[in-house]
Amino acid sequence: MTAATQTLAPRETPTIRGLPFVGSLFGMVKGPAQFFVDCYRQYGPVVRLSILGQKYVLIAGVEAATFMGTREGKECLRSKQFWEGLVGEYGATRTLTGEDGETHKQLRDVMRSGYSKESIKGRYNELIEITDRCFTRDWKVGQLVPVVEGMQYMVVDQLGTILTGAAPLEYVKDIRTTILHILNVLVTRQRPKILLKRPVYKKAKARVFELGYKMIAEAKARYATTRPEDRNLIDDIMAAHIETPDVMPASDLIVSLTGPYVAGLDTVANTTAAITYTVLKHPDVLKRVHEEVDALFAGGTIEEEDLLKRIPSLQGAIMETMRLYPIAVAQMRTATKDFLFEGHQIHEGEMIYVGTSVPHFMGEYWPHPEKFDIDRYAKPRAEHMQPGVYSPYGRGPHTCLGKSLAEIQIALSMARLFYKLDLELETPNYKLKTKTAPTPGPAMDFKVRVKGLRH
Ligand code: HEM
């Protein structure tokens, strides 16, 4: 072999020898974030593994995170296969998350404005009112409140009221059951298909469709009377259907219109629940947050301009929680073609986990990575600004379209929670238990006590 062919020859890729058939399932179930970090430390940036008989390649580290946004990454990685099951289950032809290339761009263009921060411009005080209403309803003084569930109701109330004018609270449980089954069985494939035959799932799915049909009827009625500049996400999706049905056929309306609930429910609920824990767990942080939010709301209503800059401690706590408790531990993709990554051969059609959260836990980028340190993000430290180290909202063409909206939603919700309520953990030594499916986050039995009202 010549020197040239030697350097070009792909490196040998390690394979994790797990248990027969189940493979690495237990590592994943125990905690995918830690499992991927351990894999990276032991095997390097590329390793093959199997889960329930299905083979995957894990690519991880800053190299993998930055690769997703490169031209080569866009050409080599595709989302379609992972979402096919969901698309089929809705009787749709496609969904934003499962498209690639030009058709993905078309759908993102339809939904960009509706999912943006601008969509709630002028409505921050309304968002605060909705949030307060949720606390009055679900977080009663003297009670132990199940935090994730409380946040789920809050998210549906906020998104529903802002997007459609009414919150479909009676559908929260159905949306959750449907997402749980579809994500677990068809997208992340951590559970067997037989679960989709359960009556509880079938009933919940029928109810989500019922909600979808209502949304279609209302959006159709609004189309004739809403000026293009006044349209919200739901109106934009309906306008795309009426004006360019090849981009948004009737079959794709339900999955697209109920999309914000699927995209926002578990993500924001799990994240806000985790922030509730991290802040209460660190009294010094809680004190700083209290001072900040008391000043923020001192005048009654709030100014929207530069909101996040005016609450640096809370924003630091949010970012630090999203580093340590990422809801998107890895992004799932398929190899569009044969390619080399870090010298390893990846084959067309292979299923890939891109472990974008692995660098979140690496001391090379974050001094004392295990420490909850809310000041990492302020200049001059700005540790998150190093390339590829911080990806709570994903990377590449599918980077969270609701990111800027979610940032405001999370900041306002948490600011209001700590402003209004005097909270404590169940016990001072309480240590958070987490769940992994379908979205990693605090366990459903995580509760906090409402000691009283602060305002
Ligand atoms: C804690 C809050 C959130 C986090 C951490 C988060 C994270 C993510 C991640 C990692 C992705 C990329 C998935 C992939 O590449 O396969 C994504 C996609 C997406 N997110 Fe979020 N998200 C959050 C909240 C929201 C909210 C509130 C909305 C809107 C209501 C939203 C809308 C979307 C949409 C529409 C996509 C699909 C983008 C595409 O495929 O092009 N997200 N999100």
List descriptors.
455 residues; alpha+beta; 17 helices; 11% strand; globular; binds protoporphyrin IX containing FE
Q: How would you describe this protein?
A:
48% of the residues lie in helices and 11% in strands. By secondary structure, it is of the alpha+beta class. The chain has one domain (3-453): Cytochrome p450 (Orthogonal Bundle), CATH 1.10.630. Strand 6 and strand 7 form a beta hairpin. The longest helix is centred in the middle third of the chain and has 25 residues, at 199-223. Residues 1-6 have low confidence and may be disordered. It binds protoporphyrin IX containing FE. The site of protoporphyrin IX containing FE (HEM) has 25 residues, from helix 14 and helix 17.
Task: Flag low-confidence runs.
Answer: 1-6
- The assembly state of the depicted protein chains is single chain
Order of helices and strands: HHHEEHHEHHHEHHHHHHHHEEEEHEEEE
Q: Beta-strand percentage? A: 5-15%
Distance between the first and last residues' Cα: 76 Å
* Average pLDDT, all residues: 94
Q: Which architecture would the CATH scheme give at its second level?
A: Orthogonal Bundle
InterPro entries: Cyt_P450, Cyt_P450_E_grp-I, Cyt_P450_sf
GO biological process, one term: sterol metabolic process
Keywords: Heme, Iron, Metal-binding, Monooxygenase, Oxidoreductase
Family: Belongs to the cytochrome P450 family.
